[in-house]
Fold this sequence. Notes:
By secondary structure, the protein is an alpha/beta fold. The protein has helices at residues 14-26, 40-44, 77-90, 172-183, 207-213, 244-250, 272-296, 315-318, 386-403; strands at 2-10, 30-34, 95-97, 101-107, 110-115, 118-127, 134-135, 147-150, 164-168, 188-191, 201-202, 205-206, 253-255, 258-262, 265-268, 323-325, 331-336, 340-341, 370-372. The chain has two domains: 2-133 and 342-403, FAD/NAD(P)-binding domain; 135-336, 3-Layer(bba) Sandwich (FAD/NAD(P)-binding domain), CATH 3.50.50.
Amino acid sequence: MVETINTLVIGGGQAGVATSANLRKQGVPHLVLERDRIAERWRTWRWDSLVANGPAWHDRFPDAEFTELDPEEFAPKEAVADYFERFAGDRNLPVRTGVEVTKLERHGSGFRATTATGTIEAQNVVVATGPFQKPVIPTVISDPAITQLHSNSYRNPKALPEGAVLVVGAGSSGAQIAEELVRAGRKVYLSVGPHDRPPRRYRGQDFVWWLGKLGKWDMKAPTPGTEHITIAVSGAYGGHTMDFRRLAGLGVTLLGRAGDYRDGVLNFANDLRRNMENGDANYLSVLDEADAYAKANGLDLPEEPEARVLRPLPDCVTKPTLTLDLKRESISTVIWATGFKLDFGWIDLDIFEGDGRPRHQDGVTEVPGLYFMGLPWLSCRGSAFIWGAWKDGERLAGLIAERG
Ligand SMILES: Cc1cc2nc3c(=O)[nH]c(=O)nc-3n(C[C@H](O)[C@H](O)[C@H](O)COP(=O)(O)OP(=O)(O)OC[C@H]3O[C@@H](n4cnc5c(N)ncnc54)[C@H](O)[C@@H]3O)c2cc1C
């Protein structure tokens, strides 16, 4: 069966839904194909207790509020998925679920998408298959006695075997998982690489508010290829600043960047102190910029000098552990919170760099009619986040409507 449509959107996460809503506003006939359910990754690729990293007033589309939540609350992941499902349902957006595109290729002046149930031909295609597609596990630990999982498969402390847990990676996922595990009474080791760690709140405002005021959400990528900065933030337990000293105080042993593994021993770089100090410098720079902004704009916000007081570095940082004998430390589980890579193997078009990233300018590729949505730094820092996807969707829908 061959179906034709003006614009095909592939992927029904927030980026696909945002694109669809904006195409509808522009009157562009379109279809969204989603292989699972709407916002599936919020449902099944994330741990049970996850809440949004930004408060409900911020982590949403401008067109719809989280009606059942206080604006300052952090939406639980199921509420986030329900929100997108309801958003699409209320607007009767043309999302067809349970259909995977297995091949996308050029066809005449447009494109042909292959699915198990038929072929779809379109003049325009928006690929919205996610910023985080394939889990990355950087090191091989060849010990069948150790349970290893990526953060996308972690669910809750009870689902792990008894014993200590090593969490590798201290972005938002790794830091939040480590905190949940230590609070559940586990012995936890956390490998901390380079990271940013903005304050959760400062002078009465959430950091997402400050990033907006300081123009950081709209920031362009500093240098191509250096886009990914690990950011450690958390909305868990009502939201708090991710300070690794506090985690050490709860009993987490901090380690440097994980290296190679041999004969039961995992090695760590001697970079923990530097990573912590750079993280502190990032934290303090946000306070400095916020203060300068408040002064320049005459904002009447309560001063907060105590936010600048940092506790001394814990012993595990000043006297770092550089090797870990996993058996001796009774480590039964390693959780790799080490990020994701892109996987566009199903797109048969010559638009990819050697590292698999598509060539594009703010989501517009060199192939007329082909667009990407939702990728990290697609047009700016906010692109892979909920409201950023809306802005990109609005802009790309406008371009598609012009193109016809
Ligand atoms: C742990 C975690 C927490 C996050 N928390 C926040 C947060 O609090 N706030 C925030 O703004 N952002 C957050 N993000 C970032 C971002 O919002 C999410 O990653 C979000 O899921 C990205 O939405 P998306 O639509 O771009 O991609 P995805 O949610 O990945 O959606 C892509 C969809 O495409 C489908 N698909 C893929 N390939 C095909 C195919 N070939 N055919 C058909 N369908 C296909 C997938 O099934 C999927 O449903 C978080 C990310 C992670 C990993």
